[in-house]
Amino acid sequence: CSQADLGPISINWFEELSSEAPP
Amino acid sequence: HSIEQTELADVPACDSLNPGNLQLVSKLKNHSGSCSVDVSAVWWEIAGVKEPCIVTACEYAVSLWKLLDTGQWEKRYSWHFAEVPVLQIVPVPDVCNLVCVALGNLEIREIRALLCSSDGGCEKQVLLRTGNIHAVLGLTQRRLVSSSRTLCDQQVEVMTFAEGGSEEKQFLMPPEETVLTFAEVQGTQEALLGTTIMNNIVIWNLKTGQLLKKMHIGDSYQASVCHKAYSEMGLLFVVLSHPCAKEKEPSGSPVFQLIAINPKTALSVGVMLYCLPQGQAGRFLEGDVKDNFAAAVLTSGTIAIWDLLLGHCTALLPPISDQNWSFVKWSGTDSHLLAGQKDGNIFVY
């Protein structure tokens, strides 16, 4: 699957989502 | 936004497959008389030695079996249940001398831990959780996650089995929708994934209990069961089975599907459909995924096995002795496949 289908990808998605989500 | 691109691997014809790829190692017959419902493998310390044992579940009894030098299976312990029948065994990785079971009628009403007294002399059972339990899964690091629902809210609870038999509890932030299945995310420690009744995938941080993201995966298949999830190169890959998939599509009968999700954008794309070989009918009844292999009992009574990397079915195991297969599990202690029939026959491949 191409990256264009899925939008920008981040290797550190788990850490980034954890810092954005409410505690 | 949903599953659009799905590749189909070359589907081999039925004739090129046979159970010869599976080697029968041993057979176990449970003479309890009631209907056999599940099988699992567990490490158990017997006479000071940790051994891989088999656990079988009938409606009102769970038994632990040890392999003898003669190649025969000996029943070592049995736990009995008087009122509520057993629905499934819940294996907990990294745990020795303990097996969990879910009991209930149509839905899970209780989760119990089955163990033995410290001298190994008698069987014990501990009630871990009661309620309207929708999903339960044993996790690495001696943990068990379950979700239960009351009229107004949902509780998602992680229980950790400490050495010495005590349990610690932690709660995860519940989504609004009922959680149907859980899966640990390989490659991302402390990430837990759930599928919901509204066809969403949710992700939690197991350490903080945060609900990180809710992602819609499309309405093509309802009530998907998540069997495996892994994170690679910033994407989340999820293996789903589809109990409601159409029995016949032009490409064959899809049983499992691999989808890729970008957790940052919640966009998803279908990567691979795992279909039955040409000439085979049936759809998913129940199954199990371990490493790169998926096994499923089909409505036809046959077991089919897929190599998830090759993308196609590699073995078919037709009903034996005119008895349909009713459940199949990969052993958590070795590379065996455990296949069971309702009458109590367990075949180890």
What would your notes on this structure say?
The complex is a heterodimer of chains A (23) and B (349). Chain A has 23 residues and is an all-alpha fold. Chain A is built from two helices and no strands. Chain A has helices at residues 3-6, 13-20. With 349 residues, chain B is mostly beta strands. Helices cover 0% and strands 56% of the residues of chain B. Chain B has strands at 7-8, 26-29, 36-46, 49-58, 61-67, 73-80, 86-90, 99-104, 108-116, 123-139, 143-149, 154-161, 167-172, 179-186, 191-196, 200-205, 211-216, 225-232, 235-241, 254-262, 267-275, 284-290, 293-298, 303-307, 312-317, 327-330, 337-340, 345-348. Classes of the chains: A mainly alpha (23), B mainly beta (349). The A-B interface holds A 1, 5-14, 16-18, 21-23 and B 4-5, 188, 190-191, 203, 205, 208, 210-213, 231, 233-236, 260-265, 267-269, 271.
Structural class of chain B: mainly beta
Relative helix content of chain B: under 10%
Kindly state the percentage of residues in helix of chain A: 40-55%
Query: What global shape of chain B is seen?
Result: globular
